[in-house]
Amino acid sequence: MKTIVICFIMKGDTRLTRSKQVNQEHKDRLFRLIFREREALLSLYNAVNGTDYEDSEDFTINTLEDVIYISMKNDLSFLIAGEMDLYEHQSTWNPNMPYRDLVYIADLYSGYVEEHHLDIYGSKAIRLPTPKAVVFYNGTREIPERTELKLSELYEVKCEDYCLEFKTLVLNINYGKNREIMEKCRWLHGYAVLVDRIRKYEKYYPTRVEAVKQAVEECIREGVLEDLLRKHRGEVMHSILREYDEQSHIANEKKWSYEDGYNEGRELGYSEGRESGYNEGRKSGYNEGEKCGYNRGKEEAVRNLVESLQELGVSFEATKEKVGKKYQLKEKELEAVVKKYWK
User: Fold this and answer.
1) Residues ≥6 apart with Cβ < 8 Å to 222
2) Could you tell me which of 77, 78, 83 has the C-alpha nearest to residue 130?
3) Rounded CA Rg of the chain
4) What is the CB neighbour count within 10 angstroms for residue 68?
5) Distance CA 90, CA 74 (A)
6) DSSP label of 119
7) Which of 65, 88, 72 is nearest to 9 (CA)?
8) pLDDT (0 to 100) of residue 92
């Protein structure tokens, strides 16, 4: 009998706002809410690895608290048959995942060595579980069904043989992707269906709450995650809406960045013009700096708006319409600028 040690990492939410840093604990978010169940977690592991472990009672669950990271992330790690698996859910694309996972695995190794009283300074080689990092991605950016990100892709100097490498497997779990894995894990399939329904209903319902409520009720009627949604309907609703609140927070941060960039550019242009000492030069420098700052701020604002709308699932044409109305851009310029920032 193999023993599986499951370790859930409960993370707080550390955010830098314009006035202060907020550190607040939260309940599980939806992905980890689903896979905190033994049967669901074992099914996910089997689906990803092509294994057929059956008895979910063969593992124990441990919880690590007060592990604080920037931004909320849903992940869980567990040790099974000589492996140390790190599973993480992401709704936004991030090419730095291998670095984050490397740091995370290093922390887990530190705890593993201490827990098993391993002598890292002795003459006998210690044995460490093999690390394996998987990211389950369900953002709106189009990516392949399977993507392997390498730590070496982040190195400034490239070479043939790196002394340190770390790989993260990214699985696209949007509805319709990775069908084989979805067929083997009904919980993952149910999660994909629920998220897909929410995104669709957001286009037809006046409020996000109504869209989420409709999607949840429809999934219950169709038997999708029925047990979980019936037992924990309130917690599920809270988890989903909190995730959208975080996306709104990110959008606001981008808006503030634009405002700061605009003011900085305007002030810089004015100062450069003033240094000439001549009224005409001062006026010219001010106007030029103001124009430069304005254009710089406007372009940054357009980029942030395009990225935010894309992350929220808005179509390319709808994004063009919103950007065109907000910034009064002509068709040719509008098409070019939206394409420029559409990932």
Assistant:
1) none
2) 83
3) 24
4) 10
5) 7
6) -
7) 65
8) 87
Cα separation of 320 and 324, whole Å? 6
Query: What pLDDT score does 83 carry?
Result: 79
Task: Give Cβ neighbours of residue 313 (< 8 Å, ≥ 6 apart).
Answer: 140, 199, 202
Non-local (6+) Cβ contacts of 165 within 8 A are: 150, 151, 152
Nearest to 133 by CA among 73, 62, 60: 73
Mean pLDDT over 195-220 rounds to 90
CA dist 69 and 155 (Å) reads 23
| Residues 91 and 72 sit within 8 Å (Cβ to Cβ) | no
> Among 190, 241, 192, which residue's Cα sits nearest to residue 212?
241
Share of the chain above pLDDT 70, in %: 68
Q: Quick check: 193 pLDDT over 90?
A: yes
Separation of alpha carbons 317 and 203, rounded Å: 14
- Which tokens in the block code for residue 294? 């304005």
Instruction: Report whether 240 contacts 215 (CB < 8 A).
Output: no
Residues in the chain: 343
Using the structure block, give the residue that is written with the tokens 């109504």.
210
CB 290 within 8 A of CB 266: yes
CA dist 76 and 69 (Å) reads 14
Q: DSSP string spanning 38-67?
A: HHHHHHHHHHHHT-----GGGEEEEEEEEE
Beta bridge partners of 16: 21
Distance CA 12, CA 333 (A): 43
The Cα–Cα gap between 52 and 46 comes to 6
The residue written with tokens 């290093």 in the block is 106
Q: Is the dihedral of CA 155, 161, 167, 169 positive or negative?
A: positive
**φ, ψ (nearest 5 deg) of residue 241:** -65, -35
